[in-house]
Amino acid sequence: MNKQELIGTVADTSGLTKGDASKAVEAVFDAISAALKKGDEVRLVGFGTFTISKRKASTGRNPRTGEPMTIKASSQPKFKAGKGLKDSVN
């Protein structure tokens, strides 16, 4: 399912127009992104938890030349499925 299919499903399920459903889906994505950007976690009981994982700077190798190079520290978004989501899939 891609984003447009998700918007269509939300519109059909909720009775919203596709335009309103699109705004709602975008608002949810924006709210989750903003919370993660601030360093907060987003916990949706029964669905899952969105968190940020910090990766330290490390040294790697350039695969073409074999030269050592520094890989910058970064933040990675992570999602852990909740029990309700796991149970609904199995």
Give a verbal description of the structure.
- The chain is built from three helices and five strands, in the order ααβββββα.
- Helix 1 (3-14) crosses helix 2.
- 2% of the residues are buried.
- The strands form two sheets. It has a three-stranded antiparallel sheet with strand order 1-2-5. Strands 3-4 form a two-stranded antiparallel sheet.
- By secondary structure, it is an alpha+beta fold.
Write a short abstract of this structure:
This protein is of the alpha+beta class. It has 3 helices and 5 strands. A hairpin with a 3-residue loop joins β1 and β2.
Question: What does the secondary structure layout of this molecule look like, with pairings?
Answer:
Elements: H1 3-14, H2 18-38, E1 42-44, E2 48-55, E3 58-61, E4 68-71, E5 74-81, H3 83-89
Antiparallel strand pairs: 1-2, 2-5, 3-4
Helix pairs in contact: 1-2
Helix content: 40-55%
Cα distance spanning the termini: 19 Å
Proportion of residues in β-strands: 25-35%
User: So how many helices?
Assistant: 3
- Report mean pLDDT, rounded to a whole number: 94
What about the largest sheet? 3 strands, antiparallel
The tally of strands reads 5
What class, by secondary structure content?
A: alpha+beta
Order of helices and strands: HHEEEEEH
